[in-house]
Amino acid sequence: MTTGIKIMWINPLGYDAYDQPMADFIAGIKRDDTQVDVVSLDVPGSPNHLEYRTYEGLMLGDTIRATREAAVNDYDAVVIGCFYDPGIEDAREISGEAVVVAPCQASVQIAANLANRFSVIVGREKWVGQMTERVTTYGYRDKLASMRAINLGASELQTDCGLTISRIMEAGRRAIEEDGAEALLLGCTCNFGLYRDVQAELGVPVIDPICAAFKMAEDLAHMKKVFGWTPSRIGSCAPPPEEELASFGVFTGRTSIKNRVSA
User: Can you give the residue range of the structural domain that contains 28?
Assistant: First the structure.
């Protein structure tokens, strides 16, 4: 018997408009005994998307600080809610006993259990290089059939869901028929909730990155409680020494979280 699970979902932006809709979506897929806080960062002058490495770099420090806050406040898992998986390796180093999950890695791991080849449906061609790097880093490059762009930015994906779904279906159909894809990954967390119509129409698994990342975090948190599988803290997984962090004052002075919504 395990006690309830506590998860922090970090929207790695100083922009809170996504927090409540994502919390509402997560509320519909979480276990009854799972507590979820969806947070965004206290970053003045923040963009509302991370389509550029410049924007991602500006958010990384506060993403790490938010992970540290989760660690010292007994969260069981942290999700970094962007398909670029920004700062995932850095966050894992400082997460204490909290498991750290991100959408791209979770999505490709799930897809690899359902199909031999998958395609990622991305918003813009700009994203392809960086997302291909991620898939390659995770060891799934040989399973990547293609990346297909739908020419919509992250902030546009929920503006007209009918248009977004239509473009995903078109790109997905081409990925299946021309590239040999057997499953599709939606390559942005702002696609949340759109997988159902596409999956019903195209007849292949369509992985929603919020579902993939959140459920993986929830399951890993559950396994942590049952089996004691916490993040390793030796060798390359060793965190910075606490006395050194204290001497530098790295995590003192301010909170990194500006907005918090419970799912």
Answer: 5-102+211-262
